[in-house]
Amino acid sequence: MEKNQKFLVSVLCAISIVGAFGIPLGDPKFIIQAFSLEFSFIALAAISFKKFRYAYIPNFIIALVVIIGNTVSPKHLEIMSTFHPFYNAIVLIVGGYILQGLLLVSNARSLQEYKKTRVTQ
Questions:
Q1: Angle (nearest 5°) at CA 79 between 72 and 44
Q2: In a 10 Å sphere around its CB, with 0-12 CB exposed, 13-18 middle and 19+ buried, how is residue 5 labelled?
Q3: Average pLDDT in the 42-63 region?
């Protein structure tokens, strides 16, 4: 597995781990949506690990949806700006922005590497 592909899978695993810590802190009425999102990241990690070429598009889409969703949610913005509760704010910032940004970057690099190797073969 290439270096960029390993980094992509590592970022997806890190997102899943942070999300698993964050699910118990969230609103219980959104538990099904939270589990669905976490299972999608786990599935994307497995698909990306297998080097399935169609994993790049969902990676971009889900990362952008999470970033936009965190940005437009008044409750999330309040938690992140006041750091109250502190642990929720850390999970939202790390999982919702830092790791999603890394997912976008690593996914773009893996896609470039895939296109480069596909053209040379």
A1: 60
A2: middle
A3: 92
HEC readout, the chain = CCHHHHHHHHHHHHHHHHHHHHHHHCCHHHHHHHHHHHHHHHHHHHHHHCCCHHHHHHHHHHHHHHHHHHHHCHHHHHHHHHCCCHHHHHHHHHHHHHHHHHHHHHHHHHHHHHHHHHHHC
**At 85, phi and psi to the nearest 5?**
-70, 145
Inform me whether the pLDDT recorded for 79 exceeds 90. yes
pLDDT tens figures, 14-38: 999 999 999 999 889 999 999 999 9
Give the whole-number percent of the chain exceeding pLDDT 90. 81
Predicted TM-score (pTM) of the model is: 0.92
Residue whose entry in the numeric block shows the structure tokens 């786990």: 42
Cβ–Cβ under 8 Å, residues 41 and 62: yes
